Amino acid sequence: MEIYWLLGIPLTGGTFLALWGCRRHAPEINALFSLATLAAAAWLTRRIIEQGPLTVGDGWFFIDSFNVFLVALTAFVAFTTALFSRPYMRIEAEHGRLNPQRLRLYHSSYQIFIGAMLLALTTNNMGILWVAMEAATLATVLLVSLYRTPASLEAAWKYFILCGVGIALALFGTILLYFAAEKVLGPGGTALLWTELDGVKGELEPTVLQLAFVFLLVGYGTKVGLAPLHSWLPDAHAEGPTPVSAVLSGLLLNVALYAVMRSKVLVDGALGTDMAGNLMMGFGLLSVVLAAFLIRRQTDVKRMFAYSSIEHMGLITFAFGMGGAVANFAALLHMTMHSLTKSAIFFAVGHATQKAGTQLMDDIRGLIRTNPTIGWGLMLGTVAILGVPPFGVFASEFLIITTAMHDHPWATPFLLLALGVAFASIFGKVQPMVFGETELPKLPYQPALTPVFMHLGLVLMLGLFIPAYLADWYRQAAQLLGG
Amino acid sequence: MTLTYHLQIVNLLAALLLLISFAMLSQRRIAGLITLFAWQGAALAASTLLVAWSTGQHHLYYSAAITLVLKVIAMPWYFFHIVRKLDVDRDVEPMINIPTTMLIGIVLVIFAFNLALPISELSGTVMRSTLGIALATVLLAFLMMITRRKAIPQVIGFLAMENGLFFAATSTSYGMPLVVELGVALDVMVAVFVLSIFFFQIRETFDSLDLKHMEKLKEK
Question: How many domains does the structure of chain A reveal?
Answer without folding.
Answer: 1
